[in-house]
Amino acid sequence: MTLPDNVECAPEQSTRRPTDIGIALREVLVKSLASNRLTSGVFSCVTLLNTQPEDVSVCVLPDVGPQMDVSINIQHKLLEAYCWENDIPVLRVDSGDKLSAILKSTATNNNASELSDTSCVLVQNPVSSSKEDVLVNKFYNDVMASDIYPRPIIQLPV
């Protein structure tokens, strides 16, 4: 079966706004924090990746930019390489401050102290996928896993 020439194959691609993925990622982060499926901080993330890499659905790294410490850039490169080897999607966001603000604004007293380091955030697999989880995975498969360079940086809403 073939499609007629005048039918678009992916209309959702053209109507999706760039901010939609940022909003969806924010919701994924908020929901995973509420259900204790979020790990933050380099040491905690490396520990989880070393023991249970199959349980991680996405790794979120803030963009460090050229003015940041070289050691943070090296840590991010090593985390990206490990995630790549274990088929874990890596998404870059525009600001560590926005990422921290989103997580701290929704944190409860129980998990607020664990969010002091947001230089790396891992989201574990959900029990059932929400529409935001599906959108983030679709974005990764369509854009990040393609041969588009440089990789887009997701703009998180404030």
UniProtKB/TrEMBL annotation:
<dbReference type="GO" id="GO:0005634">
    <property type="term" value="C:nucleus"/>
</dbReference>
<comment type="similarity">
    <text>Belongs to the GADD45 family.</text>
</comment>
<dbReference type="GO" id="GO:0005737">
    <property type="term" value="C:cytoplasm"/>
</dbReference>
<feature type="domain" description="Ribosomal protein eL8/eL30/eS12/Gadd45">
    <location>
        <begin position="24"/>
        <end position="106"/>
    </location>
</feature>
<dbReference type="Pfam" id="PF01248">
    <property type="entry name" value="Ribosomal_L7Ae"/>
</dbReference>
<dbReference type="InterPro" id="IPR029064">
    <property type="entry name" value="Ribosomal_eL30-like_sf"/>
</dbReference>
<dbReference type="InterPro" id="IPR004038">
    <property type="entry name" value="Ribosomal_eL8/eL30/eS12/Gad45"/>
</dbReference>
<protein>
    <submittedName>
        <fullName>Growth arrest and DNA damage-inducible protein GADD45 alpha</fullName>
    </submittedName>
</protein>
<dbReference type="InterPro" id="IPR024824">
    <property type="entry name" value="GADD45"/>
</dbReference>
<dbReference type="GO" id="GO:0051726">
    <property type="term" value="P:regulation of cell cycle"/>
</dbReference>
